[in-house]
Structure formats: C-alpha cells, structure tokens
Amino acid sequence: MKRKWSLFLAAVLAAVSITGCSSSNTADDGKPKPELNIIVAHNQTSLENPYSKAAIKFKEALEEVSGGRATATLHHGTLGENESELVEKLEMGAVHLTVASPGFMTLLGVKEIDMFSLLYLFDSFEHWEACVDGQFGQEMSALLSEKTNNRFRVMGYWTCSVRDYYGKKPIVSPQDLKGMTIRTQSTPVVTEFFKQCGAIPTSVAWGELYQALSQGVVDSAENDYTSFRLKEHHKTDNGKYISETHHDYTTRLFLTTGQFYNALTEEQKGWFDEACRIATEENRKVTYAMFEESKEKVIADGAVVTEFEDMDIEAFKTIALPIQDNFAAENRMEKYLEMIRDESRKQKQ
After folding, report:
1. 10/65: higher pLDDT
2. How far apart are CA 282 and CA 51, in angstroms?
3. pTM for this structure?
C-alpha cells in the first residue's frame, strides 16, 4: 500500500509537469517556458551506456523541435534498475517514456511479443533493422497496443547490441555448457534454449550480478560487450572468458502509454514523435559504434575472447530453430517467423 501511495504521488507530480501551472508563458530571459515536461527513465546507471546517450539526445531534440516549449527530465537508473518497476511507474503516469525488454511484456499477458526474445532469430544488425523497421515491426507494434487495450505504445525499436556468453571457462559448442549455472533473461524461450544446451538458467537481478559472479553464485552469464563492460563483470573470475555466441541481436521497446500519448495536442504529438525518432537513431548509432570499442577495452582488461568464427554456431542453431518453430506454432505467429526468414534469405542473395 505504501508503495502504491508513493507511485500515486509521483503520478500527480508528473501530471503537473505535463500541464504546467504557471500563469506566465515566458521565463525571465524572455524565452518561452516549457509547456510540456516529459519524464524519461531507463534502467542503466552509466552515462556511457547507449540508453543514456539516446535519452539525452531525446531531450535535446525535443527542446529543438518544440522551440523550447517542451523539455524532458531524465532518470538514468535513478528510479530503479528493474524493468518491472519502471513499467509500473509508466502505467501510473510517474514516467512517460521507458525502455523495456520484450520478454517483460509476456508477464503482462502478451506472449506474442516474446518472439523478439527468440535466439538466433536475426543474423546481423542489418537483418534486425530491416525487420523491425518494416512490416514485421509495424505489425508487432500494433499487436502490442491491441493486446494491452492501448495501455502501451511503441515509439521506437531500440537495441542493446548483440548478446554473448561470458563465464568461468570458454565455450565453443552447447555441450560445453552442460551443468553450468548461467544468468539469463527471465523469459521462457531463452531459459528453454539454455536448458536444452545442458545449462542451468538462473535468475539474478542485473544490479546484483557483479556480486553473484564474484562470489561464484553463478558460473556464467550472457549479455552484450558494452553492458557487461560498464558493470565490470569481465573483471570477475566467473566473467573472464567471453565466447561470441552472438545468440541475440537484441530488441528493446521504447515505450509510452496510449493514455499519455492521446492526451497530447496534435502539435505536441509532432514534437514527441520526432524526438522519439531521433533518439531511436541515436541509440542504434551509439550501440553499433560501442561494440568494437567495448570489445577492445575488455580484452585490454585481461578478458579472453573466443571469436565468433571459432564457435560451432550451427550446433547452437540446431537447438534454437525448433524452439522458434514451436513458439510460432503455439502462438499463431508462423507468418511473422516467415517474414523474418524471408528477409534473411533476401540479404544472403
């Protein structure tokens, strides 16, 4: 009850920030006062993270396209590092934009969105972009709005790069994972994949993972170079060995709510849409640029990398593809899976 009350108060304050309460439309310097203050929150605490850089770009773009009539308040992990908390605040109106993994949406009853979590679904960043920016992405966005009665609205598809294995020993094939505990995303298709590899998927909060690796609570984890570098996971004994499985070209949902969006004027929607578009471009640009930079830094720190070319990727895909097929059949998503595979074939021609 106490938590709900605090969220209610935060929502009230957020509402004030949207509507404004000043009788004057100009500041002391003669410039227009913002009539709209959009609260943006994500779960990454480092300002070097692509989420943070994209959020900062959102604020800059919003202020520019609105001529100073709109601004943004940014929270870089300061409202919590757990997506569940941020999405709850989004629904309460205490936050107007956040970033969430598709797997989290399954907890809200939208199982179809977990398709983005299927491993080895995308072959490259180019393949991923072609899919999420095309018909597939448009239909998935519409599906999320429909299944949640417009509670959520996708304003852009973000990425946090491509995920790899890192742990106490190197791996090159699924059998090398047998008996190892691995911290994974808490989504059924991901845990099923690692179970079939012989590993023991384990749930550990992101903010607690450094300690879990350091103390041997888990043998390994999986994430992208930039995210685990900024948290220094590779400096632990159980994070030193990185194997480039490239199992997940990640999709993250840049979310608002239908209630917030529909309350904006048409002019404000124009500002909001354009700032979201620019922030999405920034997220991708920074993420791609930081991939090689982060890889070089973890190697310089003493991490040992098994390159993608030296991995038995076909063995991993042999496990992943039937999981994709089963998911599509169970959720009537066959046409969407075929869209993605068709795009892959086109790019290989």
Report:
1. 65
2. 9
3. 0.87
